[in-house]
Amino acid sequence: MEKRDEAENEIVEVQPQQHPHSAPKTENGDVVLVINHSHVHPPLSVVLATVLYFAEVVCASILSKQYHDSDDTIWMGLTITFILVPAVLIQLTLTFIHRDLDMDRPLVLFMHLLMLGPLIRCIEALVTYFRAGRQEEPYVTISRKMKLKKDKGLPMEWEIGHSERKLAVHRNAFKRTAIIQAFLGSTPQLTLQLYAAIQEKYIFPYSRLVLMILTLISITYGALVCSVLAINIKYDEYKVHVRPLAYLVMILWRGLEIATRVVSLVLFSTALNHWIIPVGLANLLFFFFLPWVEFWARKGSLPQNVEKNMSKLGTVVVLSMVTLLYACINVFCWSAVQLNLADHDLIEKKPRWNRVALYYSARFAENVLLTVLWYLFKSDFYEYVCAPLLVVQLVVCYGLAVFFMLLFYQFCHPCRRIFHSNVEDYLRCICCHRQPKAEEKAERQEPLPQPSQEHPPELVVLLLPDEAPAPNSHTDQQGEGETDKVEDLLDTADHNSVVVGS
Known about the structure:
4 strands; mainly alpha; globular; disordered N terminus
């Protein structure tokens, strides 16, 4: 009886096929770019996140053994703590996203208990990738986006197969684990090891130096993932393709921003040990309660569909964890998003340049203040260090980070063509106290075509029963999970595209 019900759920009435030389059109008559996938891309992001996770765990374990041999119990305990906390959260995240508790998978659950969940998930992703394309499989759904081309939006639709969907779920999960690993494990680990090296006043052992390099790479990668996720969520209806030059600019931006922030905190903590605790807690609590204060000010209600069959208490717990992660990110770098706890996506999609300007201005002032206080109260350990030059270098490096951030939003952002206002416009508004009327008029006269809110009559959508969207919902509005799936499938479209004329 159950098999019969499942079969009935998978049967959908199919509309008559169009002529192969006719292109599907939207309600406003625009020609649609039809894409048929024949292969999938390798899950490189899954492999990279797994390699960084295990490399950091192994290197930190070796360093903990060295701390144990030298009777440095405090450093050993903190190092182990910063290994275990993100590892446990990563196992819970992978279990939560893949719903392992609802399925009979004892081996996977056992691997998660051994903190080896990323390994088994990486193997599953690789097996899915190598098996894809060996036999023809029906598509799961048809997704639709707008492709930006010469300041115009071109509607496009493509099929998503079973293998593509499974790989998209794995990529979606590992993006979140990369962020958790970066800002709940790697950032405190990097801060701890740099502080320990200065306090103990001995030469860097190779294990510590390697661990610090790995943590910096992990933090930078997590910040890149966070930035790209924010772009995909904000511009969910458009095809987003980040170019290599944009990635290079983001790496310089994020790397300089995080490195100068960590060095400023560590230098301040070596001069004023007890004051670093209230400074860190003030930063963390401010960014933790800021989304909740805005939520209460808007008198919003908790989103009902964060997860299936979840009570209000469970929803609050999940939102609290998301808010904690958001606060940890903002303590060290700009998160690129603003939380909206009343929205299903939990993201404020309207960009606010005033928020960005306020954050970087306040963070720049705080870093300068912490560095100046270190310069005034520094110990004798820095007598052979040119302290004024070090202060200038930190200020210049943070200024360069802000410069690369502005460069990214002005020239390298994948959706910069549809910005109502850019960095240049915002700076002009500040300098001239108004925006030129010619630009405002051009924006009103030449808007980009927006995607239709309903699928055309000939569009056939086949969804699995457990993955079907809510009634009257659109593919572009399926939330963060669908956004992440589309992001990883878009690049494949460039290799299998067929433009059909009307």
